[in-house]
Amino acid sequence: MRGWWGRILRVNLSSGTVKVHEYPYEDALNFIGGRGLAVKILWDEVRGVDPLGPDNKLIFACGPFNGLPTPSGGKMVVASKSPLTGGYGDGNLGTMASVHLRKAGYDALVVEGVARRPVYIYIENDNVSILSAEGLWGKTTFDTEKILKETHGRDVGVLSIGPGGENLVRYAVVISQEGRSGGRPGMGAVMGSKKLKAVVVRGTKEIPVADKEALTKLSQEAYRAILNSPSYTFWRRQGTMAAVEWCNENSALPVRNFSDGIFEFSRSIDGYTMEGMKIGQRGCPYCNMQCGNVVLDAEARGSELDYENVALLGSNLGIGKLNEVAVLNRLADELGLDTISLGGVIGFVMEAREKKLIRDDEAPEFGDFKKARELVLNIAYRRTELGRLAAEGVMRLSESLGGKEFAMHVKGLEVSGYNCFAYPAMALAYGTSSIGAHHKEAWVIAWEIGTAPIEGEKRKSVEYKVTYGFEKAAKVVELQRLRGGLYEILTACRLPWVEVGLSLEYYPKLLEAITGVKYAWEDLYKVADRVYTLIRAYWVREFNGKWDRTMDYPPIRWFSEGLKKGPLKGQHLDKDKYDALLSEYYRLRGWDERGIPKKETLKALNLEYVIPELEKQVILE
Amino acid sequence: MVKLKLHGVFAHLVGLDEVYVEVREPTPVNELLRKLIPRYEEFKTKIILVNGKPSGEETLVSGDDEIKILPVLSGG
After folding, report:
1. Are A210 and A3 in contact (CB under 8 A)?
2. Does the beta carbon of A234 lie under 8 angstroms from any beta carbon of chain B?
3. CA-based nearest distance A509→chain B, Å
4. What is the pLDDT of residues B6-36, one digit of tens each?
5. pTM (two decimals)
C-alpha cells in the first residue's frame, strides 16, 4: 500500500489498551480517508449508543494528502456520533496533529471507552502512552497546549478540549493551535465524556509515496498557481472576512437571530475594519494562503477571526463593535466552544428575552456585549440555570422555553452564517448537509446569486435567486460531491479552489502521485456518493428508522417570515416549491421520498451490507 | 454616467470601490470591466449585477446604468 499506511491506532481508555488495526486495502480504495474512513468505522462499530456514553467512539481521521506537501492539505477530520443531533457528526481542522499522526505511521486514531480520571494520549511513532491530565483538567485550550508543548517540546501536534468539552456542552469542539477548531456537532463533548483532555502526537517516519518526484512537481506547480492568482493579495488582506460585506450586500447576513439579512453596522465589523486591527496572521500546515486573521480584542488579547465567527457572534447578536466580537470569539476558542452554534444559541436567547419567553435578568438583549460575555462563561461552566439550558443547544432550548418558530437549526445543528430567506438552493444545502445546518458541503449561494446560467428574457423578468429550478438541486449534489466529498476524504482545504481558483484537476493527479491509484472523476464522485449515502444510512439507523423528509427541512422562519428591509424586502421561501426541489434532490441521489437510500442505490455504491441492517428498521424501496 | 461599484478583490485590484464612466453607446459590460480591472480575464467566475439584476458578461449598458461586480467566495 502506498500513500496509505493501512493502519489505525486504537486506544481504549476503559481498559488502558492500545492496538494497531490493519484495515483492508479495499476500504482505503472505497473510502479513501477522512470522513470516508470515519463513517465506515461508525457504521461498523457504533450502533444505537448514547453519544456521551462509553460505547461511542471518537475518531481522528486523516487522508492520503496529510503529512505530505499538498496545497492546504494539513487538515484532519474529527468524527463521532453527535451528542447535539443524535446522528453522524464530524468537522475538520487544520493542525500539526494531522501531519504528525500520519508521520507516526497511522491513517487514523480511534479513541474508545472512558477513562476513570482525566488523561491525555501521547503518541510518539510506535510508542503510545495514556498519561494523567489531572493537572490540566479545567484549563483553557490555549493553556493546555502551551503546557503540553513545554512538556513534550514544540515539535508536536496537540488537540485539546477546554472547559466546554469537559462540561459536556453539546456543541463543544476540539481545538488546536489557539483557534483552529473542528467538530461542531459536539465532538469536544464526546472527548470530555471520555475524560480525554488532549492528544499529543509526534511522528518522524517517512510516509510511503508512489511517485515522490511527481508529487513534488505537482505540488510546486499548485503552490505557484495559488501565489500567482489575481485573488491572492486581497485574500491575504481579508481572508474569509470579505464575506461580511458580500453577505450584507446580498441580504444574506444573519442579523439578530436571522430575523433580517442586512446589518446597519456591517461596516464596523467587516474585513476593512478588521484590516485596521490586524496584528498577525495564522494558518494550517502546508498552506500558503493562510486565512486566520489575528486582531487585538477589547481585552487586549489576540483573537483569530474569520467570517463565521463574526457573522454569528457579531451581526447575529446585534453587536457592531469588532473588538467586542473578537472577545466572544477568543473566549469560545479558549473554552472550546463552537463559535457558530454559540452565536446561534445566544441569538436565540436574546430573541427569547425580547419575546418575553425568558424573564431572567441574566439573559442578554440584542446588542448587549457584557451580558453575552457572561453567558458564554455560564454556558462553558454550566453554572446558572440559563447557562445549563443554553449548553444544550437551540433545538433543546426551544423545546423547553418555546420559540420553535425562531429556532435556527437543522437536525439540531445551529445554522452557520448564511441567511436564506431569498436563497432556496442554499436552504436545500443546509437541509441536506450530512451533519445538520452547515455550509461546508454545498456553499451554493454565490452561484445562486449571480453565476447561474440564465439567459435572455428570463434574466430580465425574474430574480433568479428566488426561483426553484431543478438545476439548483443538481448544483447542490455537484458541490456536495466536491466539497463534502472530495475535500473531506482527502482531507484538504477547499479554499485554494474556491477562493483563488486553483484548478480541480490537480487533485486526482496528486492523489495518483501519492497512492499510485488512478481515480477518474467518475470514480471520485462514486466514492463521494458512497460516503454521503452511508452517512444518510447512519442517520436513519441511529434514529431507529423514524425518519421522514421533514428532517431535511430548513428552519421554519425562512418560510413564515420575510426579509425586513433592503431590495429583497418581504422575500421568503415557499414550502411547496422547496418540497419539489427536495424531491428532485432525492431523485438525483437515488433516495426515496422519505430521504432514505433505495436498495438499488445501496447496491450500486457497493453498500450491500447496509441493506439487512436498515431493513430491521424500515421497509426499503 | 454609468456607475460601477466594485467589491472585494475587484476593488483591491482597481484601487477604488466606485468608478463613473461615460458610455456613449450601449456597450457589453465585460468590455468596460476588462478595461478597468487588471487581470479581469483570469476570473473564471464572478457576479455581475446590472441595476440590481444578475447579468451576463454580454449585457449592454449605457446611460445611468449601475453595475455591481462581486467575487464568488467560498464561505468560510
Report:
1. yes
2. yes
3. 22
4. 999 999 999 999 999 999 999 999 999 999 9
5. 0.96
